[in-house]
Design brief:
Chains A, B: In the C-terminal section; belongs to the class-I pyridoxal-phosphate-dependent aminotransferase family. Chains A, B: Keywords: Aminotransferase, DNA-binding, Pyridoxal phosphate, Transcription, Transcription regulation, Transferase. The structure is a homodimer of 488-residue chains. Chain A has 488 residues and is an alpha/beta fold. Chain A contains 18 helices and 14 strands. In chain A, the strands form 3 sheets. Chain A has an 8-stranded mixed beta sheet, sandwiched between helices. In chain A, a hairpin with an 8-residue loop joins strand 11 and strand 12. In chain A, helix 8 packs across helix 9 and helix 10 runs parallel beside helix 11. At the A-B interface, helix 4, helix 5, helix 6, helix 7 and helix 8 of A face helix 4, helix 5, helix 6, helix 7 and helix 8 of B.
């Protein structure tokens, strides 16, 4: 027994040493709390206490009284970081994004929200880069205009005109990303303590963003044809939200499409309660045929349209946009100057204009639609064999919102999957009400490797593991709203 | 007399029509108030009233009762925008940035804060782009890691080590710009109603940014060796600020250098009052020899280092960074995920790493230092002939902070210069206390065209024009903190 405890202490010590060597823990970084690390390693807290004490004696880590243990300082080795999955991260709205963004090369990412790089129009991007290498000096080294590239705004205005939305290029502001577009709008319209409405389930980062703005978040249950109109009206009545953020074209995570009736009803309710609607059109390129758009119905009176190019062109070349009423847009331009000294890189917008204007882009989109439809069928078939069933079959896009079999807890499955180098998107990260614990969002474009299904099958076949309580919920998010004091 | 009034009305109407045709006023955009436009055009308010009424009768603009006049809607022409200087903009912290960013090709910009594009390392950037056209798919189309390019963070960590600041790559977060770096820090540390300290004079966009965070701004008078230590201590005592934002290397706008004594004294005062200091190192590349750095003295205990590559590499390829305590940095990473879904474009960071690692970069900097020293001597000599004298001679960088002759008002000179297609940076945009109306910041790298001195000479030789009161000050900035209501 003592021997076994010693071995376990050694295992914990080895795990910490590996994290430090692999730079998953940096000099000066705080180690996980003893309780949390005991949970992660499946050992008793006293084993972790002993391991931490011995590592401190070795000088590998050091204790700060009343604060915890920290990795010792000293000039760190300048080796290439071996990124490891962060097993100790809480299942919160940051869970999927941080895991997906920082995934190492060996990780599979059915939980991430974008396409593999080789599904993107690589040839067009490379042509754009070679073209850019011969551009004017000012494109390569000067700031762009405060609204960003006129050529790209004109191109967007033409796209909008095609959907019946008459917007001049000056009513468009280019931003650094789709997310930053919404962030600017939140800065403009929201104050701490205001209320904002999101879909439930809905895109997890809307929650993370709204929390950063210290607003109350209210979720409206999402149906296969949009938010439930009666509950939407009730939420407006009861909570008087200032803003509603939603996806158009294909809803994230469900892949559902807004019906014309729901769109019309929502806008009437919004008008009656003086609600501003942000329509995130980021999935437009995935649509095989057009669906109702709030911005087009409303004519940008109270709807603000945002979007980006990261889903069907490149997530690396960062750029988003806002189309809004001229008076609002002018204030948003100033806010972007104040907070970012202007818009996206002229280098980025040149590449985007070139790639979008490249004759091959329409063909690329058609190819994507076919490839995604095939991948969707295949993934749905294989998931079905595991008892994992989609809530609905989307018209396009990479997402399948699925119910897990046998009341399995998606967070527990996602945690187990991480140990198998699999990043999943458990339902509750999308749910303000935390009512989607039996759901999981899958990205069919990231599931071509059979290892995905092998690992999922193994995890779902094993009996459920009891989860350590108190790790999920809001303790992580609260860090954003209650910053560390400036103590030395 | 009646004939003359008619002509004037026609002139005002023509001016509005030109603005609309040139897209300086967009469909739906609000026209300047009658009083303001009367001031700008040098006509009586009744002339403007008549002009607006007649344009409204023509359908060119329309009145909204109780609100003012707006440009009529309708699908705007998709022609290339002819950018015009905005004569009606208030002289506030946005004045220089918006004018400089949106300057048309014919404008000269001695007031802007960056180098002409052909002073930048164009050959290295073009080599980097050609190289990038052959990069891995994932660099061209995938999101980067949440902290951004490891290669660039390692390169920065090595630079920091050279100045005696031991920081691991994981203690560095890449951001979308230097300004966005400060914005993230403000989000993390400040709450509406907090107080922040800036230099007076100091970089105007610090004011714009802090106003967007709805904090009180207190200025500390800047001396040739840094902020006045006694007044700095007094401001801490009296206002209990949470944050102080300043430039290292070469202060903006004065070009002054912090002395070792002042640096040491400031940090002691900061420690005594639990103040966090943001050191903006954006001008580091302009320094011929190193000067004291707060971050290096403090070891990143309460100092946060930020910077970017826009001054000596490229303002187009947008990227900044933050180096901070590990616990703060981790929260900043989450905030950047929430508000921008991660960091800068991998495309951007690849170009920057390649250009900085290019053997030619050190030589480029040496060349810049020589070229700037020569330009500084020449500009100082020519300005001297006009009676414009620098407050001090900076050790490097493009800026000369100059006193105008004969008590001339810098805002009036800057307004007059705009009519001559010259963008200037009048002193008070840099001054929280509005006490720098006799000063002007010049950028010697933007003054090679003799037209700059001809126009300046003409304006300074003419008798001062009385300025319309009430246009400057904070009415513009207040738009950011009191957003338009969501009325249809």
């Amino acid at each position: 027994m003592e021997q076994r405890a010693k071995t376990r202490t050694g295992e914990v010590m080895d795990a910490i040493r590996r994290k430090i060597a692999g730079r998953a823990l940096s000099p000066g970084e705080k180690l996980p709390s003893i309780r949390r690390f005991a949970d992660i390693m499946g050992v008793s807290p006293s084993t972790v206490v002993e391991a931490y004490d011995r590592l401190a004696a070795d000088g590998v880590i050091r204790a700060r009284p009343g604060s915890g243990f920290y990795v010792s300082g000293g000039a760190p080795p300048l080796a290439v970081a071996a990124v490891e999955p962060r097993l100790d991260r809480a299942i919160d709205p940051f869970w999927v994004s941080r895991q997906s963004l920082d995934a190492g090369a060996g990780m599979l990412k059915p939980g991430c929200g974008w396409l593999p790089a080789d599904w993107m129009p690589q040839a067009a991007i490379r042509r754009a880069l070679r073209h850019l290498a011969r551009a004017d000096d000012s494109v390569l080294a000067d700031y762009g205009g405060a609204r960003g590239s006129f050529a790209l705004r004109r191109l967007l205005a033409r796209q909008f005109a095609d959907e019946g939305l008459a917007v001049g290029p000056d009513q468009i502001l280019l931003t650094l990303s789709g997310t930053q577009a919404i962030d600017l709008i939140c800065r403009f319209l929201l104050r701490p303590g205001d209320t904002a409405l999101v879909d439930d389930p809905g895109y997890f980062n809307f929650q993370a963003l709204l929390r950063a703005h210290q607003v109350r978040i209210v979720g409206v249950p999402y149906t296969p044809t949009g938010p439930d109109p009666a509950l939407f009206a009730q939420a407006l009545e009861q909570h008087r939200p200032r803003l509603y953020i939603t996806n158009s074209a294909l809803h994230n995570p469900t892949g559902a499409t807004l019906s014309p009736q729901t769109a019309h009803t929502l806008l009437n309710a919004a008008a009656a309660h003086d609600l501003v609607v942000v329509e995130d059109d980021i999935f437009a390129g995935f649509e095989p045929t057009p669906s109702p758009r709030l911005a087009a119905l409303d004519g940008l009176t109270r709807v603000i349209r945002i979007g980006s190019f990261s889903k069907t062109l490149s997530a690396s070349i960062r750029c988003g946009y806002i189309a809004a009423r001229p008076d609002w847009l002018e204030a948003l331009v100033d806010l972007q100057v104040a907070t970012n000294f202007g818009g996206p890189s002229p280098v980025a917008t040149e590449i985007i204009v070139a790639a979008l204007s490249d004759g091959s882009y329409r063909k690329h989109l058609d190819g994507l639609h076919r490839r995604l439809a095939r991948a969707r069928r295949e993934a749905a078939g294989k998931l079905d064999m595991l008892g994992v069933r989609p809530w609905l079959t989307p018209r396009g896009g990479p997402h399948l919102w699925c119910r897990l079999p046998d009341g399995r807890d998606a967070a527990a499955v996602a945690r187990a999957a991480l140990r198998d180098s699999l990043i999943l998107a458990p339902g509750n990260v999308f749910s303000v009400s935390q009512s989607a614990d039996g759901f999981m969002r899958f990205n069919v474009a990231q599931m071509e490797n059979p290892r995905v299904y092998e690992a999922l099958g193994r995890i779902l076949a094993a009996p459920p593991v009891a989860e350590g309580a108190g790790e999920d919920a809001g303790d992580h998010a609260s860090r954003l709203t209650a910053p560390a004091p400036a103590s030395a």
